[in-house]
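Table S2 (text version). Query chain:
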Amino acid sequence: MAEFAHDTVVPYQKSALSKKEQVATMFDDIAFKYDFLNHFLSGGVDVGWRKKAIRQLSILQPKQILDVATGTADMAIIESALLNTEKITGIDISEGMLEIGRKKIDKLGLSNKIELINGDSETINFADNSFDAVTVAFGVRNFENLEKGLSEIKRVLKPGGKLVVLECTKPKMIVIKQLYNLYMNWITPAIGKLFSKNRNAYSYLNESIKKFPEGKNFTSILNNLGYKNTYCKPLTLGTCSIYCGEK
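Corresponding structure-token output:
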């Protein structure tokens, strides 16, 4: 099966590390400010985006959910509030992010419902047909091999299970696009450097969004990998999108 051609974007251009290693290092470095900057830079809209993505699972009512690239567990925590789940497992390659997520989960008294483990999207350490649903919020563009990661997710989904991806996208309307480019090219990296001392991380955010195969290109990848009933739902003037597919 032919892979979709897309350029590799990495956080540190001069590093000899693989993209996976660079992404883990980057998130370890910004973990202590990640939640604050995430909500600040999106104006708090990211919480609503997550809720809309999770509601794509309302009819399915999954009992076992895998949250890939879970980070500090925001998605998993909201899933536990909105869905009648038995267990949510979050995996991420950044131990720094996971440590903060575990503290949040403990504080909320959700340790019996949500478990966070260090894990890689491209070699998911679970058996075939393990989960009713898999979610990925703002994480697929960080996969070193997009198709391999999506194939692994499909492998661990139960037949009839659903993948929900939430990802940043580029707006198409001219005026909105110009404002968006100004914000992403200049304001976001400057604020990121000011608060986290890591401008690379927020410059990478912009570059990875630019190169990501969004919209129909992404649903085409899902279709080529054997996902069924795929669809895309743009949000907030096209600055974010929900992608879904079933096994």
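Notes on Table S2: Residues 171 and 201 are 21 Å apart (CA to CA). Strands lie at 64-68, 87-92, 114-118, 131-137, 157-168, 228-235, 240-246.
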